[in-house]
Design a protein that fits this description.
single chain; 756 residues; mainly alpha; two-stranded antiparallel ribbon; 30 helices; 72% helix; 1% strand
């Protein structure tokens, strides 16, 4: 396997190979013992997740400590851990490049695929600043401080090599921490995206300085070429795999296993192609691939497939995180204990803590220098968020793997063994300190900055929810509280066992009334608009699952909601604004009036565009109607609910007028659209009915398979050959077009005369 640092590394160092072989011979061990370590790690990880759930101790910190304990027991005492110890040694001796290739693709793809595409677009400028100039600033700050203050007589290249190794945050550690602490979506997207992107950039910078340390002569031209080739090459490979995978998914129908396999194989093949074949950043490649899937393939997974895919990648990330952090702890322990000549010196630990301060200082410098620009891009950045951004600069498995690569490549005239050992000792210490100190105190910092507290609006919404919970509980009790077989239940006992309802018992006042006084506060309205638009987006997802809208239409509709969510603080509901360009005909359609274009082709393109516009308009009106009903049921006739509902009704006027005009001038379009929707809905309903018959035991396996195959075949046929509108004569279109002021051309239906 080609190393990330450009050379071929052995599977294990000679010292490790000798010790491991002798250990294996004495204890009659087997390579299969590696499975014992993996199984033990998952059991310990599961136990810790259960025990520390709800506490302020991050799960990843606990895993790292467990790994250090296991590594210390195996390498630092005379009490060997038997087969478990041999399994630990097998995993610890894995080539660092193989370690990254096994775990990183799954972790990086899961993280980037789960990110919000719209927020990625908004935060992209901030991510590029932190990942580009930010990594360079951090690298040179750390390198200069190490060169000027550490007594190791390292040259500038070696100092900058360690600075590049430690200069970027680790996505594995950061993503795991943010998901566990429940940070805001905006902060999570920014820090998550920055860590993914700058980790790839830092590996490229590390490769550059490592080549310099190993004696490669590099001028500025070759350096720039190397950086550009690695960065843009990774983007190109990621996009290529994204296009190919999404194109493949279009031919897969209701086969969740194949869909998941495509995503999994694409992530690993993309990483291998970039890292080993093309020699560019595999991390950046997988990140681009995941973001491409999030942008163009999220709506390809519908209904149960979407949930199953989400759970699969969540489980894969959990397993990978557990193994990676426990193994990181083992590597740290072994690195410290194997370099006792260094780690047993008191000044080595002093310089480790000094380096930790330098790492935090360099992160402060990066955020401070770029702060004026970060405030002007994307969603901006306030001082509280900048503190969290600074403190969340964790290091993890990627930095350790790079340090292991340096250690394994040391022992020559360019890089001494002592330097390689110091790299691993210092890197392991920084990983431990950032995870334990920064990781365990981030939640406390969020609390001190009051970034984890509920606003008054959210507290009032909680009161609404609790009130509705009591009503729901009473209905459930009325349905099941008395029956012919067992008689009646005791309501006070029921309440006593449902702690969430204890404080609500006996309350007669509807908390909706709290919104009547001062209900038009801008923050309250903004919060309700956000919840309303979230309801609209949920309705779009349901329509997609039911087959009422296509994947392309769903992408357009959901993008309009994302854009409207950015404007809720400054304007009323505005998601129709993002749909108008897709409803009205663009100006380039005027070219179709040229006599050079065949009339039948013109008619086909116009009707296809008109069908899409009608589908978008009807879905918009239906989703808003559903969201209005839900909001009214939840908030009643409060002033704030009425305000948002009125905004929604005003938004739909133009869509209603558009559909009415089409109904008067070209009703066949609406008839065909409705026919497609009803056909798809009926087939979905039949599929659900068959599953229900199997659930209640009225159908058996072969019977279910036969019936489902028939229904699925009809669904596939419907999607690939839907009912088509019979194209009318172009002269009929012209004469039957009431939307045109002068009726002279069908194109005036929406080109240039959309005000008609």
């Amino acid at each position: 396997m080609t190393s990330i640092i450009g050379g071929t590394l052995p599977y294990k160092s000679p010292e490790k190979a000798i010790s491991s072989s002798s250990y294996s011979a004495e204890n009659d061990t087997s390579p299969v013992d590696a499975v014992i370590f993996a199984g033990t790690s998952l059991v310990l990880g599961t136990a810790c997740r259960h025990l520390f759930n709800g506490t302020r101790v991050p799960y990843t910190v606990v895993l790292l400590v467990i790994g250090i304990v296991l590594g210390s027991l195996e390498y630092g005492t005379n009490h060997n851990l038997g087969k478990l110890g041999h399994g630990i040694r097998i995993w610890n001796d894995i080539n660092p490049d193989l370690l990254l290739a096994v775990f990183l693709p799954a972790l990086l793809f899961e993280s980037s695929f789960s990110m919000d595409v719209h927020q990625i677009k908004r935060c992209m400028g901030q991510m590029v600043l932190l990942a580009g100039p930010g990594v360079l600033i951090s690298t040179f700050c750390l390198g200069a401080l190490i060169k000027l203050t550490f007594p190791y007589n390292w040259d500038w290249k070696t100092s900058l090599l360690l600075g590049g190794l430690l200069g970027a945050t680790d996505p594995v550690a950061v993503v795991a921490l943010l998901k566990e602490l429940g940070a805001s979506k905006k902060m999570t997207t920014l820090i998550d995206g920055e860590s993914l992107m700058n980790d790839g950039v830092s590996v490229v910078v590390f490769q550059l300085f490592f080549k310099m340390v190993m004696g490669h002569n590099s001028d500025w031209g070759s350096i720039i070429k190397f950086l550009v080739q690695n960065s843009f090459g990774a983007v190109g490979i990621g996009l290529a795999f994204g296009f190919a995978s999404v194109f493949w998914l279009k031919f897969i129908f209701n086969d969740t296993v194949v869909q998941i396999t495509v995503t999994l194989s694409a992530s690993y093949f993309a990483y291998y192609t970039a890292q080993e074949w093309a020699g560019v950043s595999g991390i950046l490649t997988v990140m681009i691939l995941g973001m491409f899937f999030a942008a163009f393939a999220r709506t390809a997974f519908k209904g149960d497939s979407h949930q199953i895919l989400h759970h699969f990648w969540e489980m894969a990330a959990y397993i990978a995180n557990t193994l990676v952090f426990i193994l990181s702890g083992v590597i740290i322990a072994e690195g410290i204990l194997s370099g006792r000549a260094i780690s047993y010196k008191g000044n080595s630990w002093g310089f480790l803590f000094l380096l930790y301060l330098y790492v935090q200082l360099s992160r402060c410098v990066v955020v401070g220098v770029l702060y004026p620009l970060l405030c002007r891009f994307g969603y901006g950045l306030d001082w509280k968020e900048s503190i969290i951004l600074t403190w969340s600069g964790l290091r993890g498995a990627v930095s350790l793997s790079l340090a292991l690569s340096v250690k394994q490549s040391s022992g020559n005239s360019y890089l001494s063994s002592d330097t390689g050992t110091r790299f691993l000792f210092l890197t392991g210490g920084i990983v431990f300190l950032t995870l334990v100190v920064n990781g365990s105190t981030t939640q406390l910092l969020l609390h001190l900055l009051r970034m984890d507290t509920l606003t008054a609006t959210k507290k009032r919404i909680l009161e609404y929810a609790k009130y509705e919970m009591m009503k729901t509980a009473l209905k459930a009790f009325a349905n099941l509280g008395d029956d012919e077989e067992l008689g009646s239940a005791d309501w006070p006992t029921v309440i006593r066992h449902i702690s969430s309802l204890k404080d609500l018992e006996g309350r007669q006042v509807n908390p909706q009334n709290g919104y009547e006084a001062g209900s038009l506060d801008p923050k309250n309205i903004m919060d309700i608009r956000i919840r309303f638009l979230n309801g609209v987006q949920a309705a779009y997802w349901e329509m997609l699952d039911d087959g009422r809208i296509t994947q392309c239409t769903a992408n357009v509709l959901m993008q309009s909601v994302d854009e409207a969510l950015d404007l809720v603080s400054t304007s009323s509901l505005s998601d129709w604004r993002g749909l108008e360009p897709h409803v009205h005909f663009p100006n380039y359609y005027k070219f179709l009036q040229s006599k050079m274009i065949p009339r039948k082709l013109v008619t086909h393109l116009i009707v296809e565009r008109l069908e899409s516009a009608c589908c978008i308009s009807s879905a918009f009106l239906c989703a808003h109607r559903i969201a209005r009903q839900q909001l009214h049921e939840f908030l009643g006739n409060s002033n704030i609910a009425s305000t948002v509902i009125n905004e929604s009704e005003g938004e739909g006027e133009e869509a209603k007028q558009f559909l009415e005009d089409v109904r008067n001038s070209f009703p066949q379009v609406l008839s065909v659209l409705k026919t497609r929707q009803v056909t798809h809905y009926v087939l979905n309903h039949l599929d659900g009915y068959i599953k229900n018959l199997e659930k209640v035991g009225l159908l058996e396996g072969k019977e279910v398979s036969h019936l489902q195959d028939v229904v699925q075949a009809d669904l596939k046929k419907l999607l690939r050959n839907p009912p088509l509108l019979k194209l009318p004569n172009i002269d009929d279109l012209i004469t039957s077009n009431p939307l045109s002021k002068d009726r002279s051309s069908f194109m005036s239906l929406a080109i240039g005369e959309t005000d008609a």
